[in-house]
């Protein structure tokens, strides 16, 4: 059954804060999108009128997701009558959020409205760099993080400015639909994850895709399709339509790993999945392409060092 996602639509909403994450979620076919507001019609940041908005929901199902997009000129528009109505409505959601009945997603300055409603108290969070100090002032009980693409804390997801909402939506797809589906959508939209030091960890299928070099992506696609195969660098280079030496340079330049290191990361991810599925060590190792459980353990130790 599709998971319900509710976008809170307020006057002067930043359209990309809505359309970017919404498109990511739509492409999965696993989310049912709703656009809710205290008023039936608004004008967005680019002057477009958005109508047929549905009333603010009063009942929630387990696992529903509420998205609060940012607005242009948040100082003015979060002081509007519509924002006041939304803020009062949000305050009533604190128990549901605390009990993990619903998840909260704030894009850009949307975190400010959540803070005003007390929804970020006690949580780690972030927002657009231009309003980070305002978030600290409005959410003194929150742990506000700087220089982060997004922050996840116990069902509360907050992101930095505008396009970071797409990164966050891809992270949600990774959680709910799997890494493979998130990668497919990222490639379809020609976007890749941007990472910062403390961001939630992603699988190797996603972690090293933050570049736009087609030959490297071709090589990654080849190995990701059959990570258990015995890929040599010349074989991968041939599939990527470049020389072995050039591919090695490209991998170091764009993802910071050798071809073999990247391949090993994929195999480790497969082995970890198998172990989580209840496979024994030897079987998990063999299905991932390792020669033995001992070789798998050595590989794990190399990357944990």
Low-pLDDT residue spans: none
Radius of gyration: 22 Å
Per CATH, the class of the largest domain reads Alpha Beta
**CATH evolutionary superfamily of the largest domain:** Class I glutamine amidotransferase (GATase) domain
Please give the CATH architecture of the largest domain: 3-Layer(aba) Sandwich
CATH fold node name of the largest domain: Rossmann fold
Give the ordered list of helices and strands: EHEEEEHHHEHEHEEEHHHHHHHHH
Distance between the termini: 42 Å
Fraction of helical residues = 40-55%
Strand order of the largest sheet: 2-1-5-6-10-9
In what range is the share of β-strand residues? 5-15%
Protein name: DJ-1/PfpI family protein
InterPro entries: Class_I_gatase-like, DJ-1/PfpI, Homeodomain-like_sf, HTH_AraC, INH-QAR
GO molecular function, one term: sequence-specific DNA binding
Keywords: Transcription, Transcription regulation
What does this molecule look like?
This is DJ-1/PfpI family protein. InterPro entries: Class_I_gatase-like, DJ-1/PfpI, Homeodomain-like_sf, HTH_AraC, INH-QAR. Residues 217-305 form the HTH araC/xylS-type domain. Keywords: Transcription, Transcription regulation. This protein has 15 helices and ten strands. The chain is of the alpha/beta class and 305 residues long. It folds into two domains: 3-188, Rossmann fold; 214-304, Orthogonal Bundle (Arc Repressor Mutant, subunit A). It has a six-stranded mixed β-sheet, sandwiched between helices. The model has no long low-confidence stretch (mean pLDDT 92).
């Amino acid at each position: 059954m599709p998971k319900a996602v509710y976008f809170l639509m307020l006057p002067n909403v930043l359209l990309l804060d809505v359309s970017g994450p919404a498109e990511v979620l739509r492409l999965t076919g696993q989310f049912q999108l709703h656009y809710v507001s205290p008023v039936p019609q608004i004008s967005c940041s680019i002057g477009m009128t958005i109508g047929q908005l549905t009333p603010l929901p009063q009942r929630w199902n387990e696992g529903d997701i509420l998205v609060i997009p940012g607005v242009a000129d948040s100082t003015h528009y979060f002081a509007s009558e519509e924002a006041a109505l939304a803020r009062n409505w949000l305050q009533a959601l604190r128990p549901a959020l605390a009990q993990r009945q619903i998840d909260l997603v704030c894009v850009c300055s949307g975190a400010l409205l959540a803070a005003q409603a007390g929804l970020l108290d006690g949580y780690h969070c972030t927002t657009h760099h231009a309003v980070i100090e305002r978030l600290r002032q409005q959410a003194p009980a929150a742990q506000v993080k700087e220089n982060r693409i997004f922050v996840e804390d116990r069902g509360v997801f907050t992101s930095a400015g505008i396009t970071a909402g797409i990164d966050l939506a891809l992270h949600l797809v990774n959680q709910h639909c799997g890494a493979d589906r998130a990668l497919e959508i990222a490639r379809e939209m020609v976007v890749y994850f941007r990472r910062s030091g403390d961001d939630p960890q992603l699988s190797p299928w996603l972690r090293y895709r933050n570049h736009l070099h087609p030959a490297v992506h071709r090589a990654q696609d080849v190995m990701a399709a059959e990570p258990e195969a015995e890929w040599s660098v010349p074989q991968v280079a041939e599939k990527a339509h470049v020389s072995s030496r050039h591919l090695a340079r490209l991998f170091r330049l764009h993802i910071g790993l050798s071809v073999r290191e990247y391949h090993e990361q994929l195999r480790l991810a497969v082995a970890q999945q198998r172990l989580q599925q209840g496979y024994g060590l030897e079987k998990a190792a063999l299905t991932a392409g390792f020669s033995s459980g001992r070789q798998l353990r050595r590989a794990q130790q190399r990357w944990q060092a």
